[in-house]
Specification:
This protein is mostly helical. It is 72% helix and 3% strand. InterPro entries: ICMT_MeTrfase (IPR007269).
Length: 216
């Protein structure tokens, strides 16, 4: 086994089972064995928290997919004569959501927040439902969906899907998700701080959006 891989293995008190050991010893499969052994270490050291870390990574990937879709929709909207409003608040909104994910990881890891089943599982359900609502809103808006505030003069208001019943259904989902995601693993400090931060960001966003709707 190359020296660098031996150093990686020696750096962790790993309990590698026979299957992983065989992978390590097979030519061309050393990297697979190292990854498997490191996962075994992280799982043993982090316990059930490792699944929460994985959930946060998945949410982060979902956010990145949303940003890619937003960029594509923004190019289309501007090509249709759209005007972007509220340029100052958008970076704050993106930063807040990114910091939320980081804070979830840090609080659970640094302060040892446990998974409490009677709290965690309902919060998982809230997060899943919130994601469904947000993407249902995105589907209803189609190319008009964007976290950036871009107004196309003369475009009709969307009044189907969740918008039949609520004016800002996606923001209701965001409020619920921001509060619930940290509480899955009882990260109550993150839930408190970012619920407040989200309220401030959304207050400004909704004010700008209502002004934009009047502009249309």
């Amino acid at each position: 086994m190359p020296r660098i891989e031996m150093q990686i293995i020696a750096a962790f008190p790993l309990r590698i089972d026979a299957r992983f050991q065989r992978l390590l010893n097979r030519p061309g499969r050393n990297l697979v064995g190292i990854v498997a052994a490191l996962w075994d270490h992280v799982h043993r050291e982090g316990g059930e928290a490792v699944y929460y870390y994985l959930l946060i990574v998945i949410v982060g990937i979902e956010r990145l997919i949303g940003l890619v879709a937003a960029h594509r929709n923004a190019k289309w909207a501007i090509a249709q004569g759209g005007k972007e409003l509220g340029l100052d608040h958008y970076p704050a909104m993106v930063s807040m959501h990114a910091l939320l994910l980081v804070s979830c990881l840090v609080e659970v890891w640094a302060l040892g927040r446990p998974f409490i089943p009677w709290l965690g599982w309902p919060m998982v359900a809230v997060v899943v439902l919130s994601c469904v609502i947000r993407w249902r809103c995105a589907a209803a808006l189609g190319r008009h969906w964007n976290p950036r505030l871009i107004v196309i003069p003369g475009a009709p208001l969307v009044q189907h899907g969740p918008y039949r019943w609520v004016r800002h259904p996606d923001y209701i989902a965001v409020v619920a998700e921001v509060a619930a995601l940290p509480l899955i693993h009882s990260a109550w400090l993150t839930a408190m701080v970012f619920t407040l931060a989200n309220a401030l960001v959304l207050h400004e966003r909704i004010r700008l959006e209502n002004a934009a709707l009047a502009y249309v």
